Amino acid sequence: MKTPTRRKGRPKGFYAKTEVAPVQSLDRAMIVLEALADSAGLTLTEIAERLDQSPATIYRVLNTLNARGIVESDPQTQAWHIGPMAFRLGSAFLRRTSVVDRSRPEMRQLMEITGETANLGIEKDGLVMFLSQVETHETIRAFFPPGTLSPMHASGIGKALLSRYSDDRLDRFLRSGTFEAFTSKTLCEPVAIRKDMQGIREAGFAVDDEEKTTGMRCVAAPILDFYNEPVAGISVSGPSHRLTPDRISEIGKAVKQAANQISRGLGSSET
């Protein structure tokens, strides 16, 4: 196999297949960031206890990140939060994902048509990661901040993406482990999940019928790229008393049309 041409700025052993030890201080900083991202704010003591690290060590990490604007502290509560620079860095990921920009007009239209929150998500390490959302004006609504993770088998977008998997890839997913039951309606058995995939393929959209959260429904469809492969999913979600069974077909049609429109913009020839 031909070794790739070395690029400027890459160390000599960059392309070697041997494992490289992580930079411990950088790894620790990333763990602190993940802890803050998963919370509504943590004090120095809370972070140290949660990560089983000394307060002095965590304080040095926070000070370094704070100097770059990646974290910031509330002087009144003494709690640390994700800072504006972290948002800027994260936005770079969204900028390179053209599906986000292409999806925004369709998401806004979906929200206006259905009166419910529209969402965009992708598969990330076997989970659904939400990238963008257009919220409904209703007081009671679904809320998935960018970066929120959800299980594939119990979310509308996850099931929509799974329905486009090849037989081999779906088999690997179904053999990957056990599937958690979040409600009495969650599909956890491989046979049941596979049967659900058949129905989704026929309808062109997936339904999360209170399978993740009791009282919430979601209708989703897959977004395809130039190679007609699933790269994202778009959905409408809201409380079950508004997303009633008699509305599913109508909403499913609207979600499918939105997904098809985005897919065509990405070069898909299947929609």
Automatic annotation (TrEMBL):
Domain named HTH iclR-type is located at 23-84
Q: In its keyword annotation, does this UniProt entry include Transferase? A: no
Q: Which domain of life is it from?
A: Bacteria
Keywords assigned: DNA-binding, Transcription, Transcription regulation
This protein is called IclR family transcriptional regulator
Q: What InterPro entries does UniProt report for this protein, alphabetically?
A: ArsR-like_HTH, GAF-like_dom_sf, HTH_MetabolicPath_Reg, TransRegBhcR, Tscrpt_reg_IclR_C, Tscrpt_reg_IclR_N, WH-like_DNA-bd_sf, WH_DNA-bd_sf
CDD domains in the record, alphabetically?
HTH_ARSR
The signal peptide annotation in the UniProt record is: none
* Gene3D superfamilies found in the cross-reference section: 3.30.450.40, Winged helix-like DNA-binding domain superfamily/Winged helix DNA-binding domain (1.10.10.10)
Residue ranges of every copy of the IclR-ED domain listed in the record:
85-268
The upper taxonomy is:
Bacteria, Pseudomonadati, Pseudomonadota, Alphaproteobacteria, Rhodobacterales
